[in-house]
Prior knowledge:
The chain is an alpha/beta fold and 150 residues long. 37% of the residues lie in helices and 14% in strands.
Amino acid sequence: MDSFGRILLVEDDPKDVELTLTALDEYNLANEVVVATDGEQALDYLYYRGKFMRRAPENPAVLLLDLKLPKVDGLEILQQIKVDEKLKMIPVVVLTSSHEEKDMVASYKLGVNAYVVKPVDFHEFVNAIKQLGIFWAVINEAPPGSARKG
Length: 150
């Protein structure tokens, strides 16, 4: 019964990865999460490179993307996927601690679907992630060619 799409979580902070997975797990969405801990890994996943060479062929249903990442930053990832015919339909939610207006403006200009500033409070963070997970993996109609099966 695979009705949820896969989530690609791009996050370098182990605590935030754990919190996000915990929140998604409450709705049984965590078993479909691929975690990339830097921008290069995220691009490797999206382009079937390195350790992701033989991954399942469909795109993630949603990409949860931190902006401040080692190797390749979130805005660069966004720039690359939004000009790629095979990837530009993937919904992207920026999940960041950045309150900088320039980051938000740049993200929306590049076509991000949502911009969420990570709350510092654990329960707020967990609730925000739950809502995102439910919306993007369950409620939202995924674009054609993604993993979602109606």
